[in-house]
Amino acid sequence: MAVSDETRTIAQPHSTVLRRSDQRDLTQIARLVEQLAVTAIVVGLPLQMDGVEGNSAKEARDFGAAVAQATGVGVTFLDERLTTKQAERHLIAGGASRARRREVGDQVAATLILQQALAGEGRPI
Fold first, then answer.
1. C-alpha 33: how far from its chain's center?
2. 124 three-state secondary structure
3. Is residue 125 part of a domain?
4. What CA–CA distance (Å, rounded) separates 79 from 91?
5. What would the pLDDT profile of 89-111 be if each residue is shown by its tens digit?
6. What is the mean pLDDT of the chain?
7. What CATH number corresponds to the domain at position 67?
8. What secondary structure does DSSP assign to 10-63, as a single string?
9. Which of 10, 71, 88, 116 could lock 33 by a disulfide, CB 3.0 to 4.6 Å apart?
10. Residue 9's closest CA among 86, 100, 87, 117?
11. What is the dihedral sign for C-alpha 50, 16, 102, 12?
């Protein structure tokens, strides 16, 4: 997960939600949304390289809809293609160890997705 500053200018890593069960995950996310006073949620949409939505994208859309219902906050989807690779390159350039990259890679990818949304660079899908 990533969050922005109050001015919605800068994205920063926050935490990782380890997927266990939908109910537990949704409860944890709803708690964080309340604690952080979140007003909008961006979910990465894993499109195939040709831009087509496959099974992973359907699962992301279903989960995003469940998050919206559990939190009462609107969810926007943003193309997340190549963000994991970008995050990996960013962490390597910063000298992060392989273990550190595994630990925070998802947070960095989430930060990249959110920063794109904040900058208006990503096209909501």
1. 13
2. strand
3. no
4. 21
5. 888 898 988 888 888 888 989 99
6. 90
7. 3.30.420.140
8. -EEE------S-HHHHHHHHHHHHHHTT---EEEEE---TTS---HHHHHHHHH
9. 71
10. 117
11. positive
